[in-house]
Write the structure tokens for this entry.
Amino acid sequence: MKGEKWIYPITLVAFLCLRAFAYSYFSGNYTDSDQCVMWQMADDFAHFRFHTPFFYGQLYSSGLEAWLAAPFIWLGIPVYRAVPLVTALMSTLPWIWMSQLARKRSGNLAGSAILCLSLVFPISWLQTTYISRGFMQSVFLTSLATRFIHRSRLWFNIGLLLMGWGLMQNANGLLLLPGVFPIWMAEFSRFAGIKSTPVRQTAVNSIRLIWPATLGLIILVITYATLKSQHPEWMIHATVQTNFSWHVFSESIQRYNWFLQHTYGGRPPLLGCGLIALGVLLVATPKSQNQWLGFLGILLLPLVMLAVEKTTDGTENIFFGYGRFFLAIPFALGWLVSSSGFSFRGLKRFWEVTIKCPFIFFGQFQI
């Protein structure tokens, strides 16, 4: 296509301008008490004042946003600008990485489409991803890991550690896993030689591949559990609340609008979910079993979250909204589309079947 090489740079500039506006208008003007605590953490870290993990009332994941904000504070940026800037970058960078992957696999138009995909979700979803309270840490770490696992076996293990650490940060990252599943499985198959070796040798290769990351995660979990058991006085709020309840599920499924209104547009949100799913099928039709599993997982895994009691702990206000549990869904769709073959053939066929052919058919009859 003539001029196609300019499509991606123009779209990227427009995307960054929009994100910068959201940062300056929303993050620079609105906050809540929890974010102020995160600011205090960043200020303490920047001045080398360190405390026990639960000194600030709760863990706030690991305070990763505060740690990353410290260098910006050293550069003279005020803490109430530095911490939101880190969160904004956590929300923005994954979309750039997705667009680069799509551009590499399917061209500039595909990269631009990924950036545009981020615009079809409600503005309240974007605002939720800009709130500096640990909501984005799991999504960011998993996306960062997915970005470089293709480089080598070492990077694959580092990626596993980052993803595991990310899920310990915030369980909302579970909803991102179906989207990155095809990418991780492709790299795992390549490093373990699944397609080219016997089953027994494949099992041995798999163990050799992931044992460093597995050992590292076991040490991390044991260390964390030991600290909690030895210092129960640190625990003010439970860090992991995954109690399942069929009663909660039956009530939540009747109020799905409350839970998904900040994730999918439309009234009801299921309409927005259906339209986006249809669009994904038309322009990035899954071609492998792993891609189909990822696509179905993105649609069905949120239903499991409705059975978790913690997801009912919220309001319709975005600062304590239900959408914070589901904010990974758009990122999952982005990663899935970026790893699939991008084509307008499905959209063209849909046009012919639903619009063109009926018009031609009914045009044969005289009124």
The two ends are 41 Å apart (CA to CA).
